[in-house]
Description:
By secondary structure, the protein is of the alpha+beta class. It is about 30% helix and about 35% strand. It has two domains: about 5-35, no CATH class; about 40-140, K homology (KH) domain (GMP Synthetase, Chain A, domain 3, 2-Layer Sandwich). A hairpin with a 4-residue loop joins β2 and β3 (about 25). It starts with a strand and ends with a strand.
Amino acid sequence: MECKVSWLGSNGMAFSAETGSGHLVNMDGAPEAGGRNLAPRPMELLLAGAGGCSAFDVVLILQRSRQAITGCEVQLTAERASEDPKVFTKINLHFQVKGKDLDPAKVDRAVKLSHEKYCSATMMLSKTAELTYSVEVIAE
């Protein structure tokens, strides 16, 4: 896996990342840090990546378990250290999984498997942050 990050110019703190799969993602800093608030912060993207990685696992596990999943949302909240490096110290992932006749035990198992076995992003973040999760099953 590879990625190329390029600074977009001397009048701010915006960057563009080109991923190994050929996609572009822009990032920017907060105005108080010299940015212009034109794109997500790099740490926001890191948090989003963890949510995406875990949601990917949950959807895949439930589909393979023949669950009629129709939606999956993850609301992430995080706290960071007050001193540099300002790593994540606490992260909570709240899963809202929608579907028809979903088995709550299978949904909980899918989330647990993601966090304990499959999600590389949350595994890495758990080295500095206390990770917790909650699950809400929504019947359709």
